[in-house]
Specification:
This protein has helices at residues 5-15, 92-95, 195-198, 300-303, 417-422, 432-440, 443-461; strands spanning 28-30, 35-42, 51-53, 60-66, 75-81, 96-98, 102-103, 106-109, 118-124, 129-131, 135-143, 146-156, 162-167, 178-186, 199-205, 213-214, 220-222, 225-228, 235-237, 243-247, 257-263, 266-271, 274-275, 290-292, 306-314, 321-326, 339-343, 348-356, 358-368, 388-396, 405-410, 413-414. It has 462 residues and is mainly beta. The chain folds into three domains: 5-156, Immunoglobulin-like, CATH 2.60.40; 243-368, Immunoglobulin-like (Sandwich); 417-462. The strands form six sheets. Strands 20, 21, 22, 23, 24, 25, 26, 27, 28 and 29 form a ten-stranded mixed sheet that branches. Strands 1, 3, 5, 7, 11 and 12 form a six-stranded mixed sheet that branches. Strands 13, 14, 17, 18 and 19 form a five-stranded antiparallel sheet that branches. A hairpin with a 2-residue loop joins strand 11 (135-143) and strand 12. The longest helix is centred in the last third of the chain and has 19 residues, at 443-461.
Length: 462
C-alpha cells in the first residue's frame, strides 16, 4: 500500500523542520521524507560501532528504506573528513581506490507489508570502491545530484596507543551520579613532536555526539605518554539504563507494549506509559542499540512492516527546554521528528514515530533552551551504577601531513557490579573478552552473582 497523501503531508511538514540543533555531528540523517530506517552494520555485527579496520577483510553494510515500490537510481559519494568531520584537503584518488558516484545496485521491494518500501543496501569495500586511508568518512546518498541521506563511519588503524578505565568515584562525587574516564595515550609508533597540535582525542558515551568530550587536556605529559587522571573534562553524567520495547510481530504482546492495533490502512502500537525514574533501574539493555526483526519472516529487511509507535511520558510540564526521544535509531539527531509535545489533558509528553518492526532501546533527553546537549537527569536520573559504553578515538596528524589518521580506538565499559564488587576485582583486571560478553548480554553478570550467592549459601548450610 502506497503512502497516502495525509501521511506524506504529516512527514513532509515534520522533516522540513529537521535542522541539527548544533554543529555536533550525527551518525546518519536524511533530507527526504521518503527515506527511513538508516542502518550501518560493521562486518556482520549489528552491535558494533560503525567502524572497520584499515587493510583488513572487514566490510561495512549501509542500508535504508525508500517508502514506495518505485525504483530510484541512487548513487553514493564517499568523502574523507578530518577529526572534526570537515572535508579533508585530499584528492579523491588519495583516499579512494576506485570511483565515486556509482549507483546502488542492491535493492528489493517489501513483501506483504501495509507500507510499501524498497530496501537498498550498499557494501564497502566493493568492486568499484575501497578505502585507502584511515580516518573519518562521510557517505552521501544522492538522487540526480541531490543528497537524500547520509552516513558517517570510521576506518581505524590497528595501533594500540590507548588504555583506559571507568570509575564511579569521580572528582565531582563519590559513587553517586557521575562516571569518570581515566586514560593514557602511549605515543609508541608515532613520531610526535608537539602533542597539542598533532594528536586529537574524542570520548563518547553510548555513541552520543551531543555530550562527547572533544580533545581533553592531559593531566601530564611524560616519557612519550599522555596521562588523563582526575580530568574534570572526562566526567560524564551517568544516566540510567535505557528503556526498551520489542515489536517482532503484530499479534503478540511484547516488552513494554500496551497494545498493537490495526487502524486502516496502518498499524499503530501504544507503548506502556513511561514515568520519571527516581532510582537506578537495572535492565538488559544494549546501550541504545536497535535491531530490525520480524520473528515470522525469512528476511526481516523486506518482510518486517512499519507501524506508528506512540510514546507517552507522564510528567509535569517542564519549562525552558524541549523533550526528545533518543537512541541509536535516531542517529544521534535531536530534531523535530523525535521531539515530544506536552498534552495538558493527559499530563504527559507524547510523540508518534514511524518505525520498522524490531527491538529498540530508547531514553528521554531534556534539552534546555539555547543548549545543544541533552540531559538525562530530569527524567532518567543519573546513577553511577549505570552500565555505560564509552568510545575513545585517537587521531594523529604528523607535521606536514594533510589529513588526520585514526590510529587507535578503545571501548571501555562501565559494568562490573558483580565482577568488581562481589568478587572484588578492579575493572582493569577484567579481560577484554569478558567485557564483550557483558556488553552483548548483561545477564552474564547476574549469573555470576547467582553462582556466588549459591556458593556462599552452601557454605553456610554445611
Amino acid at each position: 500500500m502506497r503512502f497516502n497523501t495525509y501521511i506524506l503531508g504529516l512527514m513532509s511538514a515534520s522533516l522540513s523542520m529537521i535542522v541539527p540543533m548544533s554543529l555536533h555531528a550525527q551518525w546518519f540523517g536524511c533530507s527526504s521524507d521518503m527515506i527511513n530506517t538508516l542502518r550501518v552494520v560493521s562486518d556482520g555485527d549489528w552491535e558494533r560501532v560503525p567502524m572497520i579496520t584499515l587493510d583488513s577483510d572487514e566490510t561495512m553494510e549501509f542500508s535504508f528504506d525508500e517508502m514506495s515500490h518505485e525504483y530510484h537510481r541512487y548513487t553514493y559519494h564517499i568523502t574523507h573528513c578530518d577529526a572534526q568531520w570537515k572535508p579533508s584537503d585530499l584528492l579523491e584518488s588519495e583516499y579512494l581506490d576506485g570511483f565515486n558516484d556509482q549507483p546502488i545496485g542492491n535493492w528489493e521491494n517489501s513483501l506483504n507489508t501495509t507500507f510499501d518500501y524498497t530496501h537498498y543496501t550498499l557494501t564497502l569495500p566493493n568492486d568499484d570502491a575501497s578505502i585507502k586511508l584511515s580516518g573519518n568518512y562521510r557517505l552521501s546518498i544522492q538522487e540526480n545530484g541531490q543528497e537524500v541521506a547520509w552516513f558517517r563511519f570510521l576506518v581505524a588503524e590497528n595501533l594500540h596507543n590507548l588504555s583506559a578505565s571507568v570509575d564511579g568515584n569521580t572528582d565531582f562525587d563519590t559513587y553517586e551520579s557521575h562516571q569518570q574516564i581515566n586514560m593514557t595515550v602511549n605515543m609508541n609508533g608515532l613520531t610526535v613532536r608537539d602533542p597539542a597540535s598533532e594528536l586529537y582525542a574524542m570520548v563518547m558515551q553510548n555513541r552520543r555526539f551531543d555530550n562527547a568530550v572533544i580533545n581533553p587536556t592531559p593531566t601530564y605529559n611524560s616519557g612519550g605518554k599522555l596521562t588523563y587522571e582526575h580530568c574534570r573534562e572526562l566526567i560524564f553524567p551517568a544516566g540510567n539504563e535505557f528503556r526498551r520495547f520489542e515489536i517482532v510481530n503484530m499479534y503478540d504482546n511484547f516488552k513494554n507494549v500496551d497494545r498493537v492495533r490495526f487502524h486502516d490502512p496502518y498499524y499503530h502500537a501504544n507503548l506502556l506509559a513511561d514515568s520519571r525514574h527516581h532510582a537506578y533501574t537495572f535492565d538488559f539493555d544494549h546501550n541504545g542499540r536497535y535491531l530490525i526483526r520480524y520473528n515470522q519472516a525469512s528476511d526481516s529487511d523486506t518482510e518486517a512492516d512499519y507501524l506508528f509507535v506512540h510514546f507517552s511520558l507522564a510528567s509535569d510540564r517542564m519549562t525552558e527546554g524541549k523533550m526528545y526521544i533518543s537512541g541509536h535509531f535516531t542517529g544521534g539527531n535531536l530534531i523535530s521528528r523525535y521531539e515530544m509535545e506536552y498534552n495538558s489533558q493527559e499530563k504527559a509528553y507524547q510523540a508518534t514515530v514511524l518505525l520498522k518492526m524490531g527491538a529498540y532501546d530508547y531514553q528521554y533527553l531534556w534539552v534546555p533552551d539555547d543548549e545543544a546537549q541533552g540531559q538525562t537527569k530530569p527524567v532518567e536520573g543519573d546513577w553511577y551504577e549505570t552500565g555505560n559504553e564509552y568510545l575513545i578515538l585517537l587521531y594523529y596528524r604528523q607535521r606536514g601531513s594533510r589529513y588526520d589518521r585514526l590510529v587507535s580506538s578503545l571501548h571501555p565499559l562501565f559494568y562490573f557490579f558483580f565482577l568488581s564488587i562481589v568478587l572484588g576485582l578492579p575493572e582493569t583486571a577484567i579481560p577484554d573478552f569478558v567485557r564483550q560478553i557483558l556488553l552483548i548480554n548483561k545477564v552474564a553478570g547476574i549469573i555470576m552473582g547467582i553462582l556466588v550467592i549459591l556458593s556462599v549459601s552452601q557454605v553456610f548450610h554445611k
